[in-house]
Design goal:
Low-confidence stretches of chain A: 1-20
CATH class of the largest domain in chain A: Alpha Beta
Largest sheet of chain B: none
Order of helices and strands of chain B: HHHHHHHHHHH
Distance between the termini of chain A: 32 Å
CATH superfamily of the largest domain in chain A: P-loop containing nucleotide triphosphate hydrolases
Number of helices of chain B: 11
Mean pLDDT of chain A: 87
Distance between the termini of chain B: 33 Å
Low-confidence stretches of chain B: none
Structural class of chain A: alpha/beta
Largest interface: A-B, 34 and 28 residues
Oligomer: heterodimer
Mean pLDDT of chain B: 89
Radius of gyration of chain A: 18 Å
Strand content of chain A: 25-35%
Number of domains of chain B: 1
Helix content of chain B: over 70%
Number of strands of chain A: 10
Radius of gyration of chain B: 18 Å
Shape of chain A: globular
Chain lengths: ~260, ~250
């Protein structure tokens, strides 16, 4: 089900492993997101301590790592709602966000950010209206066809999480930033959502999907491993396995940190 | 331009739909002013002149308090619930968002002011020499002021408990100083000067003018303009608080 590409990368420099046959210059030109030494100050501490990476267009990139590692901060920085971001951050070829980027961006925050006092359909209709888009078939795609006329506050946590996901998918954005979209869902549903993400990537969307469940790396084409505000590695799942010699993703993560 | 109008309208419809799912709030917003005006009439059963003096200014105070409460809590929910952050990643502009809220609450305030004034001017027999239409226009202007102040309050509160405290903190002092209890000219100089920079003073002045002067005098329109200017100032300041932030 996951379309993990083969190990085709050369191990580049020592600290951050990048895996792709593309030349660095080519990667940067085609990247959906390009970050160079991105830092975010939060109070006196740094939530992101200088991360550099590129996210390839049309692929699923998993943003993995333990809670508190800076995943949501990075998502917010890319979405353009994080303050005190320094360094270079180009999103869909544009630095500094703006209306042109917002039209092509679907962001699903970690908390299910929907209107509790509206029905599922009313929520989606609003997000569709401000994007001048249609919602046809979207609720069925996230498995909420039967809940159309229920108030969001009456849904289960998992259902609300999917309303929130659907709201990010409205209008077929080119870049999808999904912050922990599969957390707390039952395994069957999780599998269906990863299938949906693969379909969306197949349709040309770029997905950045965060999770603290390292095992979800299997479903991604590329991985960004983030810990304590720093990038541990950027590589493909098969490169991670080859490099650490284990299929256990938790164990692989530990070995990767120990190798540094 | 057309897209922008469509997004503003969509936001207005969304806010109205939220209200529609909460009929109890709507009923309270409409009924409470009617109840209080009736109570005022009963208190002043033997002092018709006093009822005539206080009845109209009170019509300006209702939309200020109701719209303040509804706006501050609605926007606090948008901030806490994450929907504001999400909206800031969409093509919806901050002014479009506020425009949508202003349209929706403006409609509610118009309904509230129309019904309350109809009752007060009709069955309760309030004598107002000025124009009824201008009275409703002034009430709606005050509602927009309530929206601007509510928006600002929501930026300085972290919880519903806090935001509700901003009502007595910002509205009650204005109520004491607006000339309803003591004419502003008869206040100590310092307080008179203070009342000059508070918007509710002009709303109540306007209602006094409407009570005493026939037609739609220039003085009333002056007060309407001043109230709207305060509302616009509060909305612009408030729009500045709807930005990216460090959580």
């Amino acid at each position: 089900m996951s379309r993990t590409p083969g190990n085709r990368g050369s191990r580049a420099d020592s600290r951050v492993v990048t895996g792709s046959e593309l030349t660095p210059q080519r990667r940067e030109e085609t990247a959906a997101v390009l970050a160079r030494d991105v830092r975010v100050r939060r109070g006196t501490a740094e939530a992101l301590r200088g991360v550099s990476f590129s996210i390839a267009a049309g692929r699923i990139t998993g943003l993995l790592g333990p809670s508190g590692g800076g995943k949501s901060t990075l998502m917010r920085a890319i979405a353009g709602v994080q303050a005190k971001v320094t360094g270079e951050l180009r999103v869909l070829g544009v630095a500094g966000g703006g209306a042109a980027v917002r039209r092509q961006l679907g962001y699903r925050p970690q908390a299910p950010s929907v209107y509790e006092d509206l029905t599922v359909a009313e929520n989606l209709r609003y997000f569709a209206a401000i994007r001048a888009a249609r919602i046809d078939g979207l609720l069925e795609r996230v498995g909420l066809g039967g809940q159309t006329h229920q108030l969001a506050r009456d849904l289960s946590g998992g259902q609300r999480a999917r309303v929130s996901l659907a709201a990010a998918l409205v209008g077929r954005p080119r870049l999808l930033l999904l912050d922990e979209p599969t957390v707390g869902l039952d395994p069957l549903l999780r599998r269906e959502l990863w299938q949906l993400f693969a379909e969306l990537a197949g349709e040309g969307a770029t997905l950045l999907v965060s999770s603290h469940v390292l095992d979800e790396a299997r479903h991604c084409h590329d991985l960004l491993l983030l810990r304590e505000g720093q990038l541990v590695a950027q590589l493909t799942p098969s490169e991670l396995i080859a490099r650490t010699g284990t299929h256990d993703m938790d164990e692989a993560f530990v070995r990767l940190i120990e190798q540094r | 331009m057309r897209r922008s109008a469509a997004r503003t309208l969509a936001t207005c419809l969304r806010v109205l739909t939220q209200l529609r799912h909460d009929p109890r709030t709507v009923v309270l917003m409409i009924l409470v002013p009617c109840m209080l005006e009736t109570l005022l009439r009963l208190i002043y059963a033997h002092h018709r002149a006093s009822f005539d003096q206080a009845g109209a200014p009170l019509l300006a105070i209702f939309p200020l308090t109701t719209v303040f409460v509804v706006t501050s809590i609605a926007l606090l929910r948008e901030r806490i619930g994450g929907t504001l952050e999400r909206l800031l990643t969409t093509p919806l502009g901050r002014l479009e968002l506020l425009g949508g809220y202003a349209l929706a609450f403006g409609l509610v305030a118009t309904a509230q002011a129309t019904i309350a004034s109809a009752l007060t001017l009709g069955p309760l027999g309030l004598h107002v020499r000025g124009s009824d239409v201008v009275l409703v226009v002034l009430a709606v202007s005050v509602a927009l002021l309530g929206m601007g102040l509510g928006l600002l309050a929501s930026a300085f509160a972290r919880s519903e408990f806090q935001v509700v405290q901003f009502l007595p903190a910002t509205i009650l002092p204005q109520l004491l100083l607006c000339g309803l209890l003591v004419a502003r000219q008869r206040m100590p100089a310092g307080l008179h000067a203070l009342s000059d920079v508070l918007p509710l003073s002009y709303a109540v002045d306007g209602m006094h003018h409407l009570t005493l002067q026939p037609g739609a005098g220039g003085a009333v329109w002056g007060d309407v303009v001043i109230v709207l200017a305060f509302a616009a100032g509060a909305l612009v300041l408030g729009a500045g608080t709807l930005r990216r932030r460090t959580p």
